[in-house]
Amino acid sequence: MTRGSTDTAFAPAKVNLTLHVTGRRRDGYHLLDSLVAFADVVDVLTVERGDALTVCGPFADGVPTDDRNLIRRALRLAGTPRAVMLEKNLPHPAGLGGGSSDAAAVLRLVGACPDPAALLSLGADVPVCMTPRAQRMRGIGEILSPVPMPPLHAVLINPGVALPTGRVFAGLATTDNRPMDALPDAGPTLDWLARQRNDLEPPARQIAPVIGDVLSALREAGADIARMSGSGATCFGLWPSRALADKAAHELTLSGWWVRACTLI
Ligand code: ATP
């Protein structure tokens, strides 16, 4: 979207509908098999000529504005300095890949398309975020295939605990290394989704038991499926329609947690 001399892009929250840990490489990286989708809950980036990074919005606190920020690292990789205003609407760290999605959004905005290895050097979730539609993600994030998927209606809840990704992976017990079941041709069904899992949920719950409370709250509010996304602590619940997800989100807001109804594509 162009507004005069500024360009605007949306960086949608990434949701891991499933996340199976299927092994570990010699270099320590975990191998994953994950169905990833994207929500209409977004960070907003506005880009113009210049070089500074400014952050505003409800989750601006704690977002680095120096070269630790993935937006700056992405622009450097693309060789296209820009001034960026980031409206940070997504909690972090949260298992929603907000930083990765911001990096991908700014790359799309400047028309840069670094090769997969360069994208991976920014973060395992950056390649999948370059095309924010349902995809199966394997390897360490570099093997991607589009997945047909009807829009899903969800509620996202983040209880406000910061779970460092490394600590959650470190708590993984030996997993059964099973990849996802074969995806139905027409895309994931509720039954299929219910049979898959997020292997990071048990270690994340060990560190932050409140995740169990969030999952119970989603189920009590009527979710067909409730599961954690990524390395947490955000969890999602699925509902049959957006109206029902909106209604559940309205009720769940009383919890005091960050609660958003959304549509996943
Ligand atoms: P993932 O699921 O990929 O681990 P996450 O949702 O848990 O991601 P991020 O939103 O990527 O977490 O943020 C993790 C940390 O990365 C932040 O706490 C912050 O220190 C740093 N960071 C770097 N760039 C950004 C960015 N653009 N927005 C937010 N945090 C960023």
UniProtKB/TrEMBL annotation:
Documented EC number(s): 2.7.1.148
Chain's role: Catalyzes the phosphorylation of the position 2 hydroxy group of 4-diphosphocytidyl-2C-methyl-D-erythritol.
Residues bound to ATP: P91, H92, P93, A94, G95, L96, G97, G98, G99, S100, S101
Protein name, UniProt field: 4-diphosphocytidyl-2-C-methyl-D-erythritol kinase
Pathway(s) of this molecule: Isoprenoid biosynthesis; isopentenyl diphosphate biosynthesis via DXP pathway; isopentenyl diphosphate from 1-deoxy-D-xylulose 5-phosphate: step 3/6
GO biological process terms on file: isopentenyl diphosphate biosynthetic process, methylerythritol 4-phosphate pathway; terpenoid biosynthetic process
Keywords for this protein: ATP-binding, Isoprene biosynthesis, Kinase, Nucleotide-binding, Transferase
Residues covered by the GHMP kinase C-terminal domain: 194-252
Record family assignment: Belongs to the GHMP kinase family. IspE subfamily.
Gene3D superfamilies tied to this protein: 3.30.230.10, GHMP kinase, C-terminal domain
Record gene name: ispE
PANTHER family, sorted: 4-DIPHOSPHOCYTIDYL-2-C-METHYL-D-ERYTHRITOL KINASE, CHLOROPLASTIC
Residue ranges the record marks as coiled coil: none
Domain GHMP kinase N-terminal: 71-112
Reaction(s) the record says it catalyses: 4-CDP-2-C-methyl-D-erythritol + ATP = 4-CDP-2-C-methyl-D-erythritol 2-phosphate + ADP + H(+)
Annotated catalytic residues: K14, D125
GO molecular function, one term: 4-(cytidine 5'-diphospho)-2-C-methyl-D-erythritol kinase activity
InterPro entries associated with the record: GHMP_kinase_C_dom, GHMP_kinase_C_sf, GHMP_kinase_N_dom, IspE, Ribosomal_Su5_D2-typ_SF, Ribsml_uS5_D2-typ_fold_subgr
Source domain of life: Bacteria
